[in-house]
């Protein structure tokens, strides 16, 4: 391996361009070696000022570009399956943005493909596991001081949804974060989903069922509720409160600096995830680079990505049928039993 890990970034949109900046200027030990995006102008803009980057419109050409030793997938969810399988075929380590693969059949194909390789190559981009608040909550729940967790109350609000965002994507794109966070925080699998919703907000695009209230049951007897509201208009807010037998703990209320002037007191509210989770993304990508350079794979696994896809798909069926839908996971391959949670 060369001094700096050569990374091919697939997709140079909002997230891809931010990861390109991060690889170039924030994390140590890596460099952007190639970029693939069917929108060549967007890719060129994302790498402007960075030397030695091969820009391609085809994924395979970027993966085969000189100096590419690892892949960061930041294309839209439906393109991830093909990209993951192409990376596996080349034995390249991967950081794949969430959702790993939105549909469960495709997610199972990826799970089976990596299990067939017999070694893990992939970290899934569930960056909340790298957020300071979530890590403190996880440590507190794990040390047992608060007793058995009974409920998680979660809030996930975006200022506005991007064009083309569907009612199903509130679950498989947005709530996928809470699905992973709940599995990780509790160390439990989610077993059933119910979705209720109020009359859609007047601020939501025509036809979008926004907000939604999603309720998960777990195999440890806990309940997890998520208010997801992706066109709230007023701020990017992500909160999680754990209610346990001997206490509760809540994260996501940090206000930063409180400014009082002329009879009012207030603080800035982040307007998007790139601001709210900047430290988490930085730590996530640094952890991936560090592990990859040592020949290791750490963090959320393909099993976690697969489980999130199955749970989200059950949630979409629950939304569409207005019924409680059970989650059916395939058997967990041995490759993922050691440190899946
Ligand atoms: N972790 C997070 O908090 C977070 C935040 C935002 C987005 N995401 C995820 O990142 C991914 C990208 O989202 P985004 O908001 O950047 O989308 P985007 O639409 O802004 O950008 C996607 C880019 O991928 C390109 N593209 C399309 N098909 C491609 C293909 N087959 N190969 C390579 N590039 C292709 C598009 O031209 C576009 O430039 C999604 O999986 C999304 O869920 C994660
Ligand atoms: O793709 C984005 C991203 O995952 C954000 O973290 C989330 O807040 C949005 O709701 C989702 O659409």
From TrEMBL:
Keyword Glycoprotein (UniProt): no
Entry-linked SUPFAM superfamilies: Glyceraldehyde-3-phosphate dehydrogenase-like, C-terminal domain, NAD(P)-binding Rossmann-fold domains
EC annotation from Swiss-Prot or TrEMBL: 1.1.1.18
InterPro entries assigned: Gfo-Idh-MocA_inositol_DH (IPR050424), Gfo/Idh/MocA-like_OxRdtase_N (IPR000683), GFO_IDH_MocA-like_dom (IPR055170), MI/DCI_dehydrogenase (IPR023794), NAD(P)-bd_dom_sf (IPR036291)
Broad EC category: oxidoreductase
Reactions the enzyme catalyzes: myo-inositol + NAD(+) = scyllo-inosose + NADH + H(+)
Keywords of the record: NAD, Oxidoreductase
GO biological process: inositol catabolic process
Keyword rRNA processing: no
GO MF assignments: inositol 2-dehydrogenase (NAD+) activity; nucleotide binding
Gfo/Idh/MocA-like oxidoreductase N-terminal domain location: 6-122
Domain GFO/IDH/MocA-like oxidoreductase: 134-249
Name of one Pfam family that matches: GFO_IDH_MocA_C3
Similarity comment: Belongs to the Gfo/Idh/MocA family.
Subunit structure as annotated in this protein's UniProt entry: Homotetramer.
Free-text function comment from the UniProt entry: Involved in the oxidation of myo-inositol (MI) to 2-keto-myo-inositol (2KMI or 2-inosose).
Name of the protein in question: Inositol 2-dehydrogenase
């Amino acid at each position: 391996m060369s001094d700096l890990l050569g990374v091919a970034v697939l997709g140079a949109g909002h997230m891809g361009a931010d990861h390109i900046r991060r690889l170039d200027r924030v994390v140590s030990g890596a460099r952007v070696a190639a970029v693939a995006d069917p929108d060549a102008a967007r890719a060129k803009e994302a790498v402007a000022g960075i030397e030695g980057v091969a820009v391609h419109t085809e994924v395979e050409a970027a993966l085969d570009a000189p100096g590419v030793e690892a892949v960061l997938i930041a294309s839209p969810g439906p393109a991830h399956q093909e990209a993951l399988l192409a990376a596996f075929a080349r034995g390249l380590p991967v950081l794949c943005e969430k959702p790993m693969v939105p549909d469960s059949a495709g997610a199972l194909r990826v799970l089976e493909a990596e299990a067939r390789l017999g070694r893990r190559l992939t970290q899934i981009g569930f960056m909340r596991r790298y957020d300071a608040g979530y890590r403190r909550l996880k440590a507190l729940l794990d040390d047992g001081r608060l007793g058995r967790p009974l409920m998680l109350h979660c809030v996930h609000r975006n200022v506005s949804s991007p064009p083309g965002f569907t009612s199903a994507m509130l679950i498989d794109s947005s709530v996928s974060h809470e699905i992973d966070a709940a599995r990780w925080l509790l160390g439990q699998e989610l077993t059933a989903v119910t979705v209720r919703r109020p009359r859609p907000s007047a601020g939501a695009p025509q036809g979008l069922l926004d907000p939604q209230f999603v309720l998960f049951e777990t195999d440890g007897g806990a309940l997890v509720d998520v208010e997801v509201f992706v066109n709230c208009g007023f701020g990017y807010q992500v909160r999680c409160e754990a209610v346990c037998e001997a206490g509760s703990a809540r994260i996501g209320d940090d206000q930063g600096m409180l400014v009082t002037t002329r009879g009012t007191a207030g603080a800035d509210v982040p307007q998007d995830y790139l601001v709210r989770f900047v430290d988490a993304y930085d730590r996530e990508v640094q952890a991936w680079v560090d592990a990859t350079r040592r020949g290791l794979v750490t963090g959320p696994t393909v099993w976690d990505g697969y489980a999130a896809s199955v749970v989200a798909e059950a949630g979409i069926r629950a939304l569409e049928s207005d019924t409680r839908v059970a989650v059916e996971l395939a058997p967990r391959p041995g490759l993922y039993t050691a440190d899946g949670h």
